[in-house]
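User: Hey, quick favor. My workstation is busy. Could you predict this chain's structure for me?
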Amino acid sequence: MRFLLVFLLLTFSTFVSATDYYWTYGNSSNPHYSDPSSACEGMMSAYYGGTTFAGYTYTGPVEVDATTYNCMGSNSDGQTKNFLSVGRFGDSCSTGSTLNASTGICEGSSKCAAAAGATAKSYHVAMTSGSNPPSTISVNGCEATFGGVMLCKNTTKGQYVCTGDATITGKELAATSDITSEECTGDACTAGQPTDTKTDQDCVYAADGTGKATCTATASASHPGTTSCGTVNDVWTCVENPKSSSTDSTLYSEKTDVSNTDGTVTSTKDNTLTVIKCDGVNSCTTTTTSSTGTTTTKSDGTVVSNASTCSGSNCTSTGSTASASDATSDGDDDNGGPTLTPLKAIAKGSFDGAADSWDAKTETARADLEDLIAQMKTKFSLGVNLAASGGKLYCPQPVTIPVLNVQLSFCLDQYADSLSWIGSAIYVACAILALFIIYG
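Assistant: No problem, here it is.
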């Protein structure tokens, strides 16, 4: 009876501690895969960032023995290279499946094999860090790939929240700690998406009892980008448009007061401003600006001397360091430290009341123009009178046409009055046209 009990305990212990077969590279702490091919692909992505390295392109796994496969590649000259080996770990296949010795894959009625081809129309994926969203994720321990287009909101630090259609491949794939995924509907598909953020912490000096005081001010602002991913010519491709952006600034200030023998006090302030600006995922530049200011004052507050030096791209016109977020004032706040009040947008101009003023000016100018035209019309009408002039217009003898028994007259003198008015009208029209040309 005692031996039977020991046997049962050993058998139960062995059953509880059994681990399903899995493939991986390096050691067991790396992701687990259901087959050598998936393990090699995971290794290439983790170690080489893709399927090509140093002129060699990954071609597939080659069996060494039942528990080891080499991840092979070749170049354009036909030379081969073993990128790394992957190994099989664990105790046995999961219940209901058996090991295929030629492929190293557990085949049968496993949960992933049974779910192969199943598609979740909307799958919510969140990544805490990375360069691009992955084309493959783990869904309840099974490998799933995205088809169509995956849409993401992202930060400059590579934090993504994405939605897309995921299809189970039938292979097993262990989840990783930096990626979470779940099927979603409605608002749940956009939950956790990054939004515009802004923080601002003022600098408050803290004395250390030796005449020196220090403070640190921080400011940050960020705007999310939009990333679209899909398969282009069999290559998983992601494009960020519009790009994410962010600014993170830190201002460290150290102030020292020294009492002089003549009763004056010399204050020295050293500022260091570090600004990190990013335009797109992991595309950032860092600038550092340093300044030193020295001020000597009397006991009544009178400034005896004041001098400052500054080096870097964020120096102000007074020779001091600009404050945090690359857009703040460099003055002292009520606590004696540099403030972090962001620059305010320049107020737009206002045209309130301006239109009425110009309307009045236009009406005045129009009235003046009408008076001027009237005066000119009068002058022209009085000055051009052909009928009242001493001369006569062209007036030859009438011409008789015997055949038709008709007499034709070409005398223009009889039209003198009419032509005088026509002349006046032409002068007035020309004057008005000239005025409009001059005054627009």
